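In the design runs reported in the main text, the only information available to the sequence generator was the tokenized backbone. The following block is the verbatim input for one such run; it is reproduced so that readers can re-run the procedure and compare outputs position by position.
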């Protein structure tokens, strides 16, 4: 997808602090971290947001789950706990229109978020 920053990161046109990659997913540290650990898990396929996911993406979602858990353990935030956030469209605070899963940890996360 032209001009999509996360598509460009997925094909290495734009550099990112990559922490994981496979055929379908990349994960990289957020450029503006909101917690001591803050990374994004991003499907390589250009899916705009959660509303665009369909039944054919069930396997992809299962893979996202496995990668989140694996990276949370690797980054040392699994024991104390962490938060997964999917901002969706304007009111959800989504600024990059390419589906991504925020994983935040390393501090207590207030609820509700501001
Ligand atoms: P959203 O607001 O769409 O849920 O989240 C987008 C996230 O992507 C933000 O937390 C923002 O800091 C991060 N971000 C935006 N551009 C870049 C970039 O070029 N590199 C990295 N690593 N993160 C980015
Ligand atoms: Zn994209």
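Verbatim output:
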């Amino acid at each position: 997808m032209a001009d999509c920053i996360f598509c460009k990161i997925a094909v290495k046109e734009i550099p990112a602090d990559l922490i994981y990659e496979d055929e379908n997913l990349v994960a990289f540290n957020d450029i503006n971290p909101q917690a001591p650990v803050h990374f994004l898990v991003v499907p390589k396929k250009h899916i705009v947001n959660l509303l665009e996911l369909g039944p054919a993406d069930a396997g992809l979602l299962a893979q996202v789950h496995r990668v989140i858990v694996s990276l949370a353990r690797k980054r040392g935030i699994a024991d104390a706990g962490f938060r997964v956030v999917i901002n969706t469209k304007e009111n959800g605070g989504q600024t990059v229109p390419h589906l991504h899963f925020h994983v935040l940890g390393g501090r207590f996360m207030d609820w509700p978020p501001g």
